[in-house]
């Protein structure tokens, strides 16, 4: 089987080619940033998570066996990073709420460029989905991963990824009907 | 024909264009007779269209420009930290392999320069300024396997070279940044240029059976 473009880059990186390292990071940095931004909704956090994702991926490069593609592996690390970040942030928010701190500043949404109110309402409703459903919807709608790739990235089977996508969309529909966006 | 509640998930996947042909045909059959599910399908499609039309602000140019360099620095710094940690607390299989790789690089160069001599001269080997107590152990290889084993060692893989004394490792660590990975390609090319029997000879030489003599270098043939 011929080597994929990513595998060729990885081979060059293993041989010490710094140019290949830069090339691989540049290839995926934008989409990983957007994935992180959609997940955590904060540009600074998204930048930090994107960098951490690459660092962790390259640190674990020796354990990459190539059963799934490098991109799927990268997404798996990114999703785990984002979910962990969200869990930690919720812990902080719960602590702050207990102390009476105003938390709305921390939860400022990302700088979205929205076309109209409906798009904004759908985006806001999507942000409130459970993490795994939201991750699945984001990976499918915006990153166009296959359900098999989504399953690998989110640590579940392909079938579970399909079910998560369905319930993500169904929950979105219910939320939008409840707030009057959908009739 | 499937009931409405039986095709709910399929309907979402239908709107997402990710159903297999057979399943798609079954949903088509249902849709042809069910106006409620046709309406639900239209709604799901609209929802997906609206969702996918949301745009995000591009990341800053500074972030995009600097990311690769920042990642590289962080990975390099952590690699170094791991090496130092390993030097103190582990068996250092990887570092030992690297020691073997550097040793092989010098040895191969000498061997290729001196084709008439079966083993390198003591004088020539002294140019390889390794600690006197360096101990290397390898296994017995058939000639083709020997060549592959040398390549593995050159690429820093573990398993070819099992042990090195802790004193060796510090010396090796000092050589690593200067010698690798720039020397890696050169080393691989050298090994590639060797015959199978030369590779086997080299491994047998490295596989010193007498731990007391350690660097038991054969004397130069007079």
**Which oligomeric state applies?**
heterodimer
**Helix/strand class of chain B:** mainly alpha
Q: Which overall shape of chain A is indicated by the principal axes computed on the Cα atoms?
A: elongated
Distance between the termini of chain A: 51 Å
Level-2 CATH architecture of the largest domain in chain A:
Orthogonal Bundle
Low-confidence stretches of chain B: 82-95, 113-142, 156-183, 207-222
**Main sheet of chain A?**
none
Q: Please identify which CATH superfamily of the largest domain in chain A we are dealing with.
A: RNA polymerase sigma factor, region 2, helix turn helix motif
Give the DSSP E fraction of chain B (strand runs of 2 or more residues). Answer: under 5%
Describe the fold and architecture.
The complex is a heterodimer of chains A (183) and B (222). Chain A has 8 helices and 1 strand, in the order ααααβαααα. Chain A has 183 residues and is mainly alpha-helical. Chain A folds into 2 domains: 1-94, Rna Polymerase Sigma Factor, Chain: A (Orthogonal Bundle); 97-183, Arc Repressor Mutant, subunit A. The relative contact order of chain A is 0.10. Mean pLDDT of chain A is 84; it is low at 98-114. Chain B has 222 residues and is mainly alpha-helical. Chain B is built from 10 helices and 1 strand; from the N terminus they run H-H-H-E-H-H-H-H-H-H-H. Chain B has helices at 8-15, 21-33, 35-53, 61-89, 93-113, 122-125, 143-154, 166-179, 182-193, 196-206; one strand spanning 55-56. The longest helix of chain B has 29 residues, at 61-89. In chain B, 25% of the residues are buried. Classes of the chains: A mainly alpha (183), B mainly alpha (222). Chain A binds chain B through residues 14-16, 18, 21-22, 25-26, 29-30, 33-34, 37-38, 43, 46-47, 50-51, 54-55, 58-59, 110-115, 118-119, 122-123, 126, 137, 140-142, 146-147, 162-163, 165-166, 169-170, 172-173, 176, 182, and chain B through 8-9, 12-13, 16, 18, 43-44, 47-48, 50-60, 63-64, 67-72, 74-75, 78-79, 155, 180-182, 184-185. Strand 1 (112-113) of chain A pairs antiparallel with strand 1 of chain B, so a sheet runs across the interface.
């Amino acid at each position: 089987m011929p080597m994929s473009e990513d595998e060729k880059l990885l081979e060059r990186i293993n041989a010490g080619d710094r140019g290949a390292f830069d090339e691989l990071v540049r290839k995926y940095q934008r989409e990983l940033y957007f994935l992180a931004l959609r997940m955590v909704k904060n540009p600074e956090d998204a930048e930090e998570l994107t960098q951490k994702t690459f660092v962790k991926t390259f640190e674990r490069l020796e354990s990459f066996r190539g059963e799934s593609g490098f991109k799927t592996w990268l997404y798996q690390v990114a999703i785990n990073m984002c979910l962990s970040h969200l869990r930690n942030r919720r812990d902080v928010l719960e602590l702050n709420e207990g102390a009476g701190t105003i938390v709305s500043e921390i939860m400022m949404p990302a700088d979205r460029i929205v076309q109209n109110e409906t798009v904004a309402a759908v985006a806001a409703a999507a942000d409130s989905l459970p993490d795994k459903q939201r991750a699945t919807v984001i990976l499918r709608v915006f990153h166009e991963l296959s359900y098999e790739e989504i399953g690998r990235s989110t640590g579940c089977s392909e079938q579970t990824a399909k079910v998560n996508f369905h319930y993500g969309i169904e929950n979105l529909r219910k939320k939008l009907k409840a707030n009057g966006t959908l009739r | 024909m499937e009931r409405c509640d039986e095709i709910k998930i399929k309907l979402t996947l239908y709107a997402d264009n990710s159903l297999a042909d057979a399943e798609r045909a079954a949903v088509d059959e249902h849709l042809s007779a069910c106006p409620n599910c046709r309406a639900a399908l239209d709604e799901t499609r609209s929802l997906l269209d609206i969702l996918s039309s949301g745009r995000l602000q591009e990341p800053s140019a500074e972030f995009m420009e600097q990311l690769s360099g920042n990642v590289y620095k962080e990975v390099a710094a952590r690699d170094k930290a791991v090496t130092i940690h390993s030097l103190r607390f582990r068996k250092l299989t990887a570092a030992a392999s690297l020691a073997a790789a550097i040793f092989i690089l010098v040895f191969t160069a000498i061997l290729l320069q001196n084709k008439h001599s079966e083993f390198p001269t003591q004088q020539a080997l002294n140019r390889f300024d390794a600690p006197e107590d360096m101990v290397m152990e390898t296994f017995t290889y058939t000639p083709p396997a020997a060549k592959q084993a040398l390549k593995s060692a050159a690429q820093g893989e573990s398993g070819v070279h099992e042990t090195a004394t802790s004193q060796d490792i510090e010396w090796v660590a000092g050589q690593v940044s200067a010698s690798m990975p720039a020397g890696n390609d050169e080393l691989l090319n050298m090994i590639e240029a060797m015959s199978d029997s030369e590779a086997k000879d080299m491994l047998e030489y490295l596989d010193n059976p007498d731990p007391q003599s350690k660097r038991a270098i054969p004397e130069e043939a007079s």
